[in-house]
Design brief:
- The protein is of the alpha/beta class.
- It has 2 domains: 191 residues, 3-Layer(bba) Sandwich (FAD/NAD(P)-binding domain), CATH 3.50.50; 139 residues, D-Amino Acid Oxidase, Chain A, domain 2 (2-Layer Sandwich).
- 30% of the residues lie in helices and 30% in strands.
- The strands form 2 sheets. Strands 1, 2, 6, 7, 8, 9, 15 and 16 form an 8-stranded mixed sheet that branches. An 8-stranded mixed sheet has the order 3-5-4-11-12-13-10-14.
- Strand 15 and strand 16 form a beta hairpin.
- It binds flavin-adenine dinucleotide.
- Flavin-adenine dinucleotide binds next to helix 1, strand 3, strand 7, strand 10 and strand 14.
Length: 354
């Protein structure tokens, strides 16, 4: 078994890990960043919307601009909100971030899986593209390995609660610049969406599998309704899905010299499911904190943890609270009331009320 030593080992090359690897390498650290996927960024498991502040990262992957969000309540009433953002080709988005990391000097390795962590010896066992086992020693490990983090499991941390999603790509039959959101008891623990992506649309639903038998039937009903209305064509051009953490951020993002970012840290918004921006921001800051720590600032990792709590905790805690409130109402008469969903969705002032 080969043994290599790095200042920073990054597990996972989604937006969180790639941003962390870039920042650490730019600061002059030796970085190994691995991902188990054969091709980085693929298959895409995303509706592909990013908020405007992600514009710098989105440029190489930009598909179209979004101006608003239409939120549809159970009665059929619609709320239109300004909600500017960008639709990206998520595979290209992730690949561009990984290329940046590589250009900054990080060693970027696909098809490489974290098998085991020996925190005492600060060593990870990795299985590489040809099945060979390698050991990598690290001073700091950045856990960017998504909602079902292997690193968290190795440390004995509890798994994050998640909702499941299912999404189809369909031909879009008319130009669209809004995202559409459906709030309904048909999608308990989540919502339905249509995100336009040029000539196609990502149509999906998220729901809590404790509350629905499966996601296929409600998604196919939504797609059929949209096809009947002439919004989308009937042929399914692609299928995807995946888990979204909905329990809010981990109590601590730092465990000795291990730093959690993005979905692995629980930074995804538990109501909207958005997590790309928080993954990039936390990843970059973790890479910078690693450099500061190894440069002699013994408090840099704790400061990172505090900064992330300051930045994300309030909005995530409100979302967790609203989610719990909604969880008590799904499949009850309240779940058919517009008023319930106004309190549970970010487009309405009721969501932000005390
Ligand atoms: C259907 C769906 C739609 C979504 N739509 C949006 C959206 O429109 N906008 C938005 O902002 N967010 C969206 N999200 C959430 C968003 O995709 C995530 O928040 C984001 O990907 C988090 O980035 P990350 O880098 O933390 O984790 P990930 O992107 O999940 O990356 C983790 C990486 O770690 C790798 N990995 C895992 N375990 C190991 C291991 N043991 N060894 C090596 N590698 C490993 C994985 O292969 C993966 O590439 C959506 C999620 C889903 C499921």
């Amino acid at each position: 078994m080969n043994m290599n030593a790095f200042d920073v080992l990054v597990i996972g090359l989604g937006p969180g890990g790639a941003a962390a690897a870039s920042a650490a390498a730019r600061a002059g650290l030796s970085v190994l960043a691995i991902d188990k996927r054969r091709k980085l960024g693929e298959p895409v498991q995303c509706a592909e919307f990013v908020p405007l502040p992600m514009g710098r990262y989105a440029r190489p992957a930009l598909v179209q601009k979004i101006t608003g969000m239409r939120s549809v309540l159970p009665s059929g009433a619609c709320q239109h909100s300004d909600f500017p953002g960008l639709m990206v080709d998520r595979a290209r988005f992730d690949q561009a971030l990984a290329t940046e990391a590589s250009k900054a000097g990080a060693l970027v390795q696909a098809q490489t899986v974290l098998k085991e962590l020996d925190q005492g010896r600060r060593t990870a066992v990795l299985r590489g593209p040809n099945g060979q086992l390698e050991q990598a020693c690290y001073q700091i490990l950045i856990a960017a390995d998504g909602p079902h983090s292997t690193v968290a499991r190795s440390l004995g941390l509890p798994p994050l609660p998640v909702v499941e999603t299912r999404q189809y790509r369909l031909p879009l039959l008319r130009p669209y610049t809004d995202t559409d959101i459906w709030l309904s008891d048909q999608y308990p623990g989540g919502y339905g969406w249509l995100f336009p992506r040029g000539a196609v649309a990502n149509v999906g639903i998220g729901a809590d599998l404790k509350l629905v038998a499966d996601l296929k039937a409600p998604l196919e009903r939504l797609c059929a309704d949209l096809a009947d209305q002439g919004v989308v064509g009937p042929e399914v051009l692609g299928r995807t899905g995946g888990a979204i953490p909905v329990g809010g951020m981990r109590a601590s993002l730092v465990h000795e010299n291990i730093v959690f970012v993005g979905d692995a840290a629980g930074l995804t918004h538990p109501i909207t499911g958005a997590g790309i921006a928080s993954a990039v921001v936390s990843g970059e800051r973790a890479g910078q904190a690693a450099a500061a720590f190894l440069g002699g600032d013994g408090e840099a990792l704790e400061s990172f943890d505090e900064d992330m709590h300051d930045e994300f905790e309030d909005s995530l805690a409100r979302a967790v609270m609203r989610r719990q409130w909604l969880m008590e109402r799904w499949h009850t008469p309240d779940a058919h009331l517009d008023a319930t969903h106004k309190r549970g969705w970010i487009a309405f002032r009721e969501y932000f009320a005390a």
